[in-house]
C-alpha cells in the first residue's frame, strides 16, 4: 500500500517544478515592448473636430491632410498675390503636430522661382498653419505623441 501511495505522490513532486513562474524584471518587459513597437506608425492620426469620429486609419489621415490643405489654400487665396509669370509648382510643407496638438512648421521646401515670384509665401504658409482650428494629437498605445507630416501643396498662379 505504501508503495502505491509513493508511486501516486512521486509524479506530483516531480511536476511541481513545471508550475513555478519565472519572474521577469520590468526592464526586460520594457525592452521587449520597445523592440516590438513600430515607432513610425500611430494608432490614431492627429484629427480636427470634423475628422475625430473616423476610425479607419487611412481615411482619418486623408481627412486630416485635406483639412490642412484646404485651410492653407483658403488663407493663400485671401492674400491675392500678384505674379509676373504664371506659376505651376509644388511646395512641400513639413508640419509637426506636437503631443499637445500644437501645429509647428518644421520647414518649407519650395523652388527658388516661386520664392522670387512670391517672396511672402513662406510667411503666408506659416500664418495659415497658425490659424488652423484645434487639433487633437496623434495617439500611440493610448498616449498622445508628436507626429510629422510631409505635405505637398500645389501653387498655381497666373
How would you sum up this structure in a few lines?
By secondary structure, this protein is of the alpha+beta class. Helices cover 41% and strands 22% of the residues. The strands form two sheets. The protein has a three-stranded antiparallel β-sheet with strand order 2-1-5, with helices on one face.
Output the helix-strand order: HHHEEHHEEE
Main sheet? 3 strands, antiparallel
**Broad shape:** rod-shaped
Number of helices: 5
Tell me the Rg in angstroms: 28 Å
Largest sheet strand order: 2-1-5
Average pLDDT value? 81
Please give the number of β-strands.
5
* Helix content percent band: 40-55%
Unreliable parts: none
Strand content: 15-25%
Protein name: TonB C-terminal domain-containing protein
Explain what you see.
- With about 160 residues, the protein is of the alpha+beta class.
- It has a domain at about 55-155.
- It contains five helices and five strands, in the order αααββααβββ.
- The protein has helices at about 1-15, 25-35, 55-80, 110-115, 120-130; strands at about 85-95, 105-110, 140, 145, 145-155.
- The strands form two sheets. Strands 2-1-5 form a three-stranded antiparallel sheet, covered by helices on one side.
- The chain is rod-shaped, with a radius of gyration of 28 Å.
- The termini are far apart.
Output the keywords:
158 residues; alpha+beta; 3-stranded antiparallel β-sheet; two-stranded antiparallel sheet; 5 helices; 5 strands; rod-shaped; TonB C-terminal domain-containing protein
Amino acid at each position: 500500500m505504501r508503495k502505491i501511495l509513493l508511486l501516486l505522490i512521486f509524479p506530483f513532486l516531480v511536476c511541481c517544478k513545471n508550475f513555478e513562474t519565472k519572474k521577469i524584471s520590468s526592464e526586460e518587459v520594457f525592452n521587449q515592448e520597445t523592440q516590438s513597437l513600430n515607432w513610425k506608425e500611430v494608432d490614431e492620426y492627429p484629427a480636427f473636430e470634423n475628422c475625430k469620429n473616423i476610425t479607419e486609419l487611412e481615411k482619418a489621415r486623408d481627412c486630416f491632410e485635406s483639412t490642412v490643405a484646404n485651410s492653407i489654400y483658403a488663407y493663400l487665396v485671401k492674400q491675392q498675390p500678384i505674379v509676373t509669370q504664371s506659376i505651376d509648382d509644388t511646395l512641400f510643407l513639413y508640419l509637426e503636430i506636437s503631443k499637445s496638438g500644437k501645429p509647428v512648421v518644421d520647414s518649407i521646401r519650395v523652388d527658388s522661382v516661386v520664392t522670387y515670384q512670391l517672396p511672402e509665401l513662406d510667411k503666408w504658409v506659416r500664418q495659415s498653419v497658425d490659424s488652423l482650428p484645434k487639433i487633437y494629437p496623434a495617439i500611440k498605445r493610448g498616449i498622445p505623441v508628436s507626429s510629422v507630416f510631409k505635405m505637398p501643396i500645389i501653387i498655381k498662379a497666373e
